[in-house]
Design brief:
Helix 16 runs antiparallel to helix 17. The longest helix has 17 residues. The radius of gyration is 20 Å and the shape is globular. It contains 18 helices and 15 strands. It has a single domain, classed as L-arginine/glycine Amidinotransferase, Chain A, CATH 3.75.10. 55% of the residues are buried.
């Protein structure tokens, strides 16, 4: 066994955080479309959560927001001039267009990439495949920046391999770690990697769902091949179409894995028994399956409360804990189930609740805000930039967000050229704080 720790690389909420309602199939995003947002509150809530988890002994790191408005895409669409001028022109041309250009959805870093730790890969390096996010236009423009940011932070090729995003078109969508889980006895041990897909990209006879299945089987298989995973320790499971129809647009809305445990809703998977057998076949440890019955927590309540889109973590004491949003405490069915779960003495022994409403109203819980990266001590030393959270960095980030972010942002404000300039000024300052150099297109122009 190699000693390793799982580090939560949390995405910082961007200065253009707004409720554009751009994600079809994401119930929270669709429901809150058009509301006023508070970018400052959203960013500070996320930083407070990181600080609290750090105090629990859970290693934290940060990933920066993406450049918004996205200048390269605006120019590719024929707009010219300064970033402010392009923003005004794009808004006059089409409000939905500027809403896409201003989307801060890159804060959901669970969608940034799929990560396989060095304990699982053939070449003994940690592998990253940035997600192509082909299901939505506003997210598809994230892939290039995600790749560049990951290549900057994980630049040491002796320890890390950052791949190009997979090609996409049709149904070849890759939604990243939100459809990936890993079971292992300890983080530094070889584990079983679980890839959950909605459908085959090439199944012409597949039933059309109310909401689209965003992750393709062929994409999951390609990521596993790239990462050099052991076929016996790699499991593919189809998401239950009923879960997708109910609004579980990513599998992490209905299941989450940590250590040897898989915590999941009864209606999460299409063929759960086969999946359990495949996991047991690949594991040299005893996996633990914690099923939440539908008659105790209906699927609608699980999705609404983000019970499974919570973080399932192992504390420094070795205790497993759920990091939950306040929504899970306020939902009667979810709260009653969680209390019973803790009292029954299973693998999950603690709960911690956080107010993340500002970001969650755009469609994702605590789990969406971070990318899980397992690192050995040598790999941790090879990480570049000032990205590991400590009290000084947390203070600096809170001051930065307080100085640069707006208290309120209305849909009409997305057309404001001053907002565009404020956003790039904030990101330019952030790269100095994080010592990442010129990672944005506007810095490299």
């Amino acid at each position: 066994m190699t000693h390793a720790q799982e580090v939560n690389f949390d995405g910082l909420v961007g200065p253009t955080h707004n409720y554009g309602g751009l994600s079809y199939g994401n119930v929270a995003s669709m429901t809150n479309s058009g509301r006023a947002s508070s970018p400052k509150k959203a960013a500070l809530q996320g930083i407070r959560k990181m600080r609290a988890l750090m105090a629990m002994g859970i290693p934290q790191a940060v990933l920066p927001p993406h450049e918004r408005p996205h200048g390269p895409t605006l120019r590719a669409l024929g707009f010219t001039g300064t970033i402010g001028q392009m923003t005004e022109a794009a808004a006059k041309s089409s409000y939905p267009l500027i809403a896409n250009m201003m989307s801060a959805s890159a804060m959901w870093t669970a969608n940034a990439a799929t990560v396989s730790p060095s304990a699982d890969t053939a070449d003994g390096r940690a592998h990253f495949t940035p997600a192509n996010l082909g299901a939505n236009f506003h997210r598809s423009i994230e892939a290039e920046q995600s790749e560049r940011t990951l290549r900057t932070i994980f630049a040491d090729e002796h320890h890390f391999m950052v791949h190009d995003p997979l090609p996409y078109g049709g149904r070849m969508g890759d939604e990243g770690a939100a459809n990936h889980g890993r079971l292992c006895p300890r983080h530094g041990d070889a584990g079983v990697e679980l890839f959950v897909y909605g459908a085959s990209a090439f199944d012409s006879k597949a039933k059309e769902l109310k909401f689209p299945a965003r992750q393709a089987l062929e994409v999951s298989e390609a990521v596993a091949r790239r990462h050099g995973l052991d076929a016996v320790r790699t499991v593919y499971a189809r998401q239950n179409p009923a879960a997708i129809e109910a609004g579980a647009f990513h599998n992490d809305v209905v299941s989450v894995a940590n250590g040897p445990a898989l915590f999941f809703h009864e209606q999460a998977f299409a063929e759960a028994d086969r999946m359990f057998d495949d996991i047991r076949r690949g594991a040299d440890f005893d996996p633990v399956f914690v099923k939440v019955p539908a008659d105790e927590v209906p699927l609608e309540d699980a999705i609404k409360s983000y019970l499974f889109n919570s973080q399932l973590v192992t504390l420094s004491s070795g205790t497993m804990a759920l990091i939950l949003p306040e929504d899970a405490r306020e939902n009667a069915a979810t709260y009653a189930y969680v209390q019973a779960l803790i009292n029954e003495g299973g693998p999950i022994r603690e709960t911690h609740y956080f107010d993340l409403r500002e970001s969650m109203s755009n469609g994702g819980g605590p789990a969406c805000l971070r990318l899980r990266v397992t690192l050995t001590e040598a790999e941790r030393k090879a990480v570049r930039g000032r990205v590991f959270l400590d009290e000084a960095l947390a203070d600096a980030l809170e001051s930065w967000a307080s100085d640069h972010y707006r208290d309120e942002l209305y849909p009409a404000d997305l057309a404001d050229p001053l907002l565009a300039e404020e956003s790039l000024t904030a990101l330019d300052r952030l790269t100095t704080i994080l010592d990442l150099g010129s990672i944005y297109d506007f810095q490299r122009a």
